[in-house]
Amino acid sequence: MTMQSAAPRSKRILMVGAPGAGKGTQANAIAKQFGITHIASGDLLRKHIADGTTIGKTVEDIVNKGELVPDAVIMDMLRKPVMAASETGGYVLDGFPRTVEQAEAAYRTAGSLGVGVQIAVHLDVPEEELIRRMLERARGADDTEDVIRHRIKVYEEKTRPLLEYYSSRELLIQVNGARPVSEVTWSIVVQLQRALKRPNTHTSGTAHKNQATADKAVA
Ligand code: AMP
Question: What contacts 199, CB < 8 A, 6 or more positions away?
């Protein structure tokens, strides 16, 4: 069953997690389940780099070092796909926002569009497991051990504060991501379905003080 008929307004689901936490895999599964679009900022950047576009040339060194790309580049790159997805049911964003500043910018844009429910999903995975997974997948020049450790440090400093931001403003779902893929997916879907049923998760730019229950109920 999909949730589209239950919530007529577009859904905005945001994946928050360290590199290697499984955001891409889970975002893909969520997109299929809810009939929404999966948008991955890292995938889009890697495609720009592979295609040698202007954006690609601007960001290549930054991405390869595991640093964050400037907000303006990210916002420009995401604007069109995000707007298009908002008109066709919504999206699950994987890799954005990465900082509280990006979240605030996205919130202003979404608020002015009057789009619906926003829920952040935190995939929690211990550091050693993150490193093991990323070395195993070794996707690109930013997947060497030094860069991986640096990316995790960047996550801790710049992205982790987002969890507090979302739990105090809108809705944050906590998921233990250190389990088999299908169990994690199930846990996310169950919690999202529950959250999407709540009338007060439908926002149009107004802050909410909701926090979904932790994972225990479905673990
Ligand atoms: P990811 O595949 O999401 O781990 O992203 C790979 C790399 O792309 C990151 O290490 C950053 O260099 C860059 N990147 C992806 N998303 C963002 C973002 N929202 N803001 C800044 N940099 C990003």
Answer: none
For the CA of 97, the nearest atom of ligand 1 = 19
Instruction: Write the pLDDT tens digit of every residue in 110-124.
Output: 666 555 568 999 999
- The alpha carbons of the chain give a radius of gyration, in whole angstroms, of 17
One-letter amino acid at 175 equals V
Cβ-Cβ contacts under 8 Å for 161 (sequence gap 6 or more): 99, 100
Identify which of 98, 134, 150 to mutate to test ligand 1's pocket (most ligand atoms within 8 A of the CB): 98
123 residue type, one letter: L
Element (H, E) at 174: strand 172-176
| The 37-40 sheet, strands edge to edge | 37-40, 90-94, 11-17, 118-124, 172-176
Give per-residue pLDDT as tens, 46-78.
999 999 999 999 999 999 999 999 999 999 999
pLDDT tens column, 73-95: 999 999 899 989 988 999 999 99
